Each structure stands twice: as C-alpha cells, then as structure tokens.
Amino acid sequence: MKKSIFLGCFLGLCTFWGQAQVEKGTGQNPYFRIEVVDAENNWPVPLVEFKTVENIRFVTDNAGVIAFYEPDLMGKEVWFDITSHGYSVPKDGFGYRGARLKPVSGGKAVVKVNRDMIAKRLGRLTGSGLFAESQKCGTDMDWQDAGVVGCDTVQTTPYKDHIFWAWGDTSLSPYPLGIFNTSAAKTPLPETWAYPGQPPVKIKYDLFKNQEGKPRGVIPLPSEGPIWIGGTLSLKDKDGKEHLCTVYSKIKNFLQAYEKGLAVWNDEKEEFESVKVLWNKSSGKDAPSCPEGNQAFYTDEQGVEWVYFGSPLPNMRCRATYEAWLEPENWESVSTPRVLSSVKDGSQVRLHSGSMQWSEYKKRWVSIFVEQGGSSFLGEVWYTEAPSPTGPWKKAVKVITHDHYTFYNPRLHP
C-alpha cells in the first residue's frame, strides 16, 4: 500500500535492522513481496511503514505484506526506514533504523519484528485495501473490501442470529462527504468467542445498503448534522421478544449535541426509529445522563440481571429488560473512579474513553481505556480489572502506546 502519509495504526509495529530473509525472484510477477512477521510467533504484522531514502512510503496490509515495485529501484540495494507506533528498532552506527533489501520481481523478503508493548496486533477491521498488497502479489484473491474507506467509533452487540455492528461518521470513496447518520453491518455469530484469534483478520461485513447497492445510514431522522449512537444492545421484553436498542444524539456545530433520545431497530425497514425523545436543547435544561457508552451484562448475588453503561467504566445501570431500559425512572447512577494508579510507578492515570466486559479467560471484569493526556494525546491505551463492574478496580498497566497519534474510544467487543 503505497502512501504519501502514514494512514494510522491499530496497535503498533516494530522491526530489527537487518533481520531479513530474501528469496530470488522468478520474474513472473513484477512485485517484490515483503512479509513482516512477529519474531515471537511468526504472526503477520499489519500497518508497518517502510520508507525509502527518497520518501516513497509503503504500509503492510492485514497479511503483513508490502508489494514493492519501483522500476528505478528494482535489482538494486534499497534502504528502508521502518517506523511504527509502540515498537522499537535498534539504530545502526549512524542512528538510522531500518533494513537494506534488494528487490527483484517475483522475489520475497521476510523481515522479523519484535513487539515492545503488551498488546499484540491483529489487524484492521475496517477501511479499504485490507489485503491490497497481498492481492498485487497474487494471494488472498478471494477477499473483497466492504465498500467503506474509513469510519469512526464502533458499537457491537449480538442480536438474534448475528452480530450487529454500527459506526459513526463513515467515509466513502466517491466523495469526501460520506455517511453521517450511522453506518451498520451484520456478521454471523462466531463459532467460538476466541475470535478472531490468530491473524490475518478477515471479517466479512454484510453492510446495510441502499437500492443502488451503496452503504447507507441506518438512523434516518431529520437532523442539522450527524447522528451518533451509543449504548447499543439487545434486550428482551416481558413476552420474550428481542429488541435492538440504542441512544441517539443529534449533533451540530461539530460536537454540540442538541437532542438525545431512544431508538429501536425496525427489522423490516432495517433501520433505527425514534421511540422517545429524552431531551432537546430548546428546553433550556442540561442534557440528562443516558444509558450510552458501552454496555455490559451482570447478574448479581440475588440472581438479578443488570446491564451497565458507561465509558470506560460504568456510570449507570438498569434491569436487563426492554421495559426497564425504555423508562428513565428505572435508570440508576453508578459510581466508579475516573483516576487510577499506574502499576509501573504509582502515578495517576486519568481515564478518558473505553469499554468494559467480563473476561471468561481472566474470570474478572476487564477494561481498556484511553488515558487523558499522557505521552500521546488520547493515544495511550491502558488495561485494568476488577471482581465486579463497580470495582474495586486495580492499578492500571499500559498496553498500547502511540507517537503523537490518537486512538480514542477503544472497544472490547462483547
């Protein structure tokens, strides 16, 4: 993926100078295949940036592949600076970090990288060109991108026989102005919750589309600007009927909410419909707290099932029924910390946004969140855990870092 700028990253990347295995080419394919793998487990590492001396940039796809073909550089030794968020590469004697390769058509080089942070990269879930580099080299030809080139904050929840996905502002290739009233898709329920497991990641979304076959918004309410949703979840009513529920916010003037309400999915129309307006700025009152953010289900010692809402830790709960969610008088405030201590040095870590879920592996409630401030503005991701949704929450450990790059609203998928 040849780029003039680095387009972002999901976890981070790393290489060791000179650790490359090179195979001679056959000449059948014009591209020189560069594979980047984790030295610890040989997993492919997506989103590694290679840059030539003349500043031509390439980025690995979800298979950890770069397809290199520059006519004036083929058959010659080429130096690549290799940079990434959260990973380190040893400097050579002159302070440069990278590798020297000799690209030949049809050839291949394997570059091993080391991971310096706790989180392991799996890959991009959305956007375009997820396997574009591999396809140039003739592999992963069965893959087809979903049709969007970028999207904002994600919401996910199991609903009936599938997983429902929703995203905020969404970019499409035909024009800079894309979808601003929530794009969405569905995928089959995974066979196992160890999902997606080992890379490369290949999640095939069934996007909701218009009559022209193009991705569309799924909350078509009149609005002066974008419509964002939060707290999306599936709840059953007293008769056992399942409802896909969400809180919507109408936005204007960039980030200013002027209306909030509850919306429910219409299965026939395949879109959300407003069922209750909770607040409008014209009332002159402050916006109320709502069951938004991320959701997590919890059964207490008395056997009562609750659903907790918040970002990253819960600030509200209600009984896990459709009727309880529908009426604000059933919503209860919850107190959780907004500052934790670092495991490393005991320093304060201010919580910004994130999510919480039960971990069957850890047998604990776990949360990942972005630090407010830190070495990278909204780019440092931390982990903490607790015996219950309300705590007590342990000291936090940093699991992902970025070099002056934001990574807001990290999500633990239920």
What does the model show?
The chain is an all-beta fold and about 425 residues long. The chain has three domains: about 1-135, Carboxypeptidase-like, regulatory domain (Immunoglobulin-like, Sandwich), CATH 2.60.40; about 150-290, no CATH class; about 340-400, no CATH class. It contains two helices and 29 strands. The chain has helices at about 130-135, 320-325; strands at about 1-5, 20-25, 30-40, 50, 55-60, 65-70, 80-85, 100, 110-115, 150, 155-160, 160-165, 170, 175-180, 185-190, 205, 225-235, 240-250, 255-265, 270-280, 295-300, 305-310, 315-320, 330-335, 340, 350-360, 365-370, 380-385, 395-400. It has a five-stranded antiparallel sheet with strand order 1-5-4-7-8, with no helix packed on it. Strand 17 and strand 18 (about 240-250) form a beta hairpin. The longest helix has 5 residues, at about 130-135. The model is unreliable at about 1-20 (pLDDT under 50).
Q: What fraction of the residues are assigned to beta strands by DSSP?
A: 35-45%
- Please list the strands of the largest sheet in the order they lie side by side: 1-5-4-7-8
Shape descriptor reads globular
- What is the number of strand segments? 29
- Poorly predicted runs are 2-18
List keywords for this structure.
five-stranded antiparallel sheet, 2% helix, 2 helices, mainly beta, 414 residues, single chain, disordered N terminus, Immunoglobulin-like
Helix and strand layout, with pairings?
Blueprint: E1 2-3, E2 20-23, E3 32-38, E4 49-52, E5 57-59, E6 65-68, E7 78-83, E8 98-101, E9 108-113, H1 132-136, E10 150-151, E11 154-159, E12 162-167, E13 170-172, E14 175-179, E15 183-188, E16 206-207, E17 227-236, E18 242-252, E19 256-266, E20 271-280, E21 294-299, E22 305-310, E23 314-319, H2 322-326, E24 332-333, E25 339-341, E26 348-359, E27 364-371, E28 381-386, E29 397-400
Parallel strand pairs: 3-9
Antiparallel strand pairs: 1-5, 2-9, 3-6, 4-5, 4-7, 7-8, 10-13, 11-12, 12-15, 13-14, 15-16, 17-18, 18-19, 19-20, 21-22, 22-23, 23-24, 25-26, 26-27, 27-28, 28-29
